[in-house]
């Protein structure tokens, strides 16, 4: 399949089940909401080293939030529910509670409950008070700045982690521009995050290593500087590869983000130095979710 | 409107206890069976048909066309459905309700909505004493649902309230929110003396700071995000709290270690 001169390789991204939740963080200004969001989702690129994967799903207008202030919607994913229950209160306590003017609310109502103020409220040292509104309990924790308002808990969802595609380009600059275009388009898709820096990964990995104890190591088949020294997936004209990793609340959300991202890259086309779109997988034996690139891009335009 | 209507045949000579005569009881019954239902009246049991003209179809709402101050326990124990009273009622209306809607077009006697745990009561007129309060010998008052009073409330409203919402458009009598455990009260008018004594938790919204017992401490005026949240999440309070960003917060009753709060617009 060729789209605007870009080869869509006949392969698939292999993804894994994750458990996720959504937090709505509000603040007095959009800037402070964003600061809280970035802090809370910092150092959360990969469960391998960070314990969770997190990102800002989107910014929220005042009319979209529970308290009528500007906010952000955050998605946090972990490998299992037990891990999620640990990382969410930690990040809430260290990054939202501490951030000026913020409040935090549940962003998912269904599923198993993930504690928010249920644990953080004890910071109030007995001065915390709650207010039950409908079926929900909100806590007001006194802090030096005023009060921290927080939902007692939030729901969770069984999501998908590790959706991905690779951008193979002639040069580093051209790969980066294509990746930026993909990210700009993909962040508009609801229900997904791109947990790596700026949504882009330059150090895609393969499973295992020659070194004992390392679970993952550089994906040498896609390293242009190793072409010829290892079995390579890169044709001669490819000088740089960048990866976009996608976590989402559902298979459909990740598939849609994949489609939107590849479409944006292909819109730049071969003229912008994009050679091919590939994807990372492990032969299909490890992850139950397979995102077949050509199926996802079917009907997108020209083929060859 | 479909449903069953009860119209008094004559002014009641004694108090009539309609506790248990709720839509979920009356709606499934054919009219003939309904007519033979017995209710306590002045120390004896009287067939409903001796007291009321009964008309309508056995579904939908239960309507009492002319209320009477001697009608006690109207809507008490309701769990679902709708009961409408076109006039006033006596004591214990909506007592122990856990669901459904009770609309009263006039005034209500004492213990309106006492110990209710759910549902909604809308009273157009004034309420007697102990609205939303605990009954005699009971440890807790209203614990859920909404009790909306269109006029004034008598003494001891919200006494031992443990949850839910009471809105009083007019004034509240003495001893409002005495021993309040939790929940929310909003008062639009004047507040009687001795409010909040023994208050443990809960919130009372007022226009102006009332006279409070010695155990209440004025913490000053604060910008509270919770005000915005409540205004958006509680329809009954959205108009009342519109534009509130700051509130004067008085905490008590500290004499018993209470953390209740009286919030007045700051």
TrEMBL record, chain A:
<comment type="pathway">
    <text>One-carbon metabolism; formaldehyde degradation; formate from formaldehyde (H(4)MPT route): step 4/5.</text>
</comment>
<dbReference type="Pfam" id="PF01913">
    <property type="entry name" value="FTR"/>
</dbReference>
<dbReference type="InterPro" id="IPR002770">
    <property type="entry name" value="ForMFR_H4MPT_ForTrfase_C"/>
</dbReference>
<protein>
    <recommendedName>
        <fullName>Formylmethanofuran--tetrahydromethanopterin formyltransferase</fullName>
        <ecNumber>2.3.1.101</ecNumber>
    </recommendedName>
</protein>
<dbReference type="InterPro" id="IPR014053">
    <property type="entry name" value="ForMFR_H4MPT_ForTrfase"/>
</dbReference>
<comment type="similarity">
    <text>Belongs to the FTR family.</text>
</comment>
<dbReference type="Pfam" id="PF02741">
    <property type="entry name" value="FTR_C"/>
</dbReference>
<keyword id="KW-0554">One-carbon metabolism</keyword>
<keyword id="KW-0963">Cytoplasm</keyword>
<dbReference type="GO" id="GO:0030270">
    <property type="term" value="F:formylmethanofuran-tetrahydromethanopterin N-formyltransferase activity"/>
</dbReference>
<dbReference type="InterPro" id="IPR022667">
    <property type="entry name" value="ForMFR_H4MPT_ForTrfase_N"/>
</dbReference>
<dbReference type="InterPro" id="IPR023447">
    <property type="entry name" value="ForMFR_H4MPT_ForTrfase_fd-like"/>
</dbReference>
<comment type="function">
    <text>Catalyzes the transfer of a formyl group from 5-formyl tetrahydromethanopterin (5-formyl-H(4)MPT) to methanofuran (MFR) to produce formylmethanofuran (formyl-MFR) and tetrahydromethanopterin (H(4)MPT).</text>
</comment>
<feature type="domain" description="Formylmethanofuran: tetrahydromethanopterin formyltransferase Ftr C-terminal">
    <location>
        <begin position="146"/>
        <end position="296"/>
    </location>
</feature>
<keyword id="KW-0808">Transferase</keyword>
<keyword id="KW-0012">Acyltransferase</keyword>
<feature type="domain" description="Formylmethanofuran: tetrahydromethanopterin formyltransferase Ftr N-terminal">
    <location>
        <begin position="1"/>
        <end position="143"/>
    </location>
</feature>
<comment type="subunit">
    <text>Homotetramer.</text>
</comment>
UniProtKB/TrEMBL annotation, chain B:
<dbReference type="InterPro" id="IPR036485">
    <property type="entry name" value="Glu_synth_asu_C_sf"/>
</dbReference>
<dbReference type="InterPro" id="IPR017550">
    <property type="entry name" value="Formylmethanofuran_DH_suC"/>
</dbReference>
<protein>
    <submittedName>
        <fullName>Formylmethanofuran dehydrogenase subunit C</fullName>
        <ecNumber>1.2.7.12</ecNumber>
    </submittedName>
</protein>
<dbReference type="GO" id="GO:0018493">
    <property type="term" value="F:formylmethanofuran dehydrogenase activity"/>
</dbReference>
<keyword id="KW-0560">Oxidoreductase</keyword>
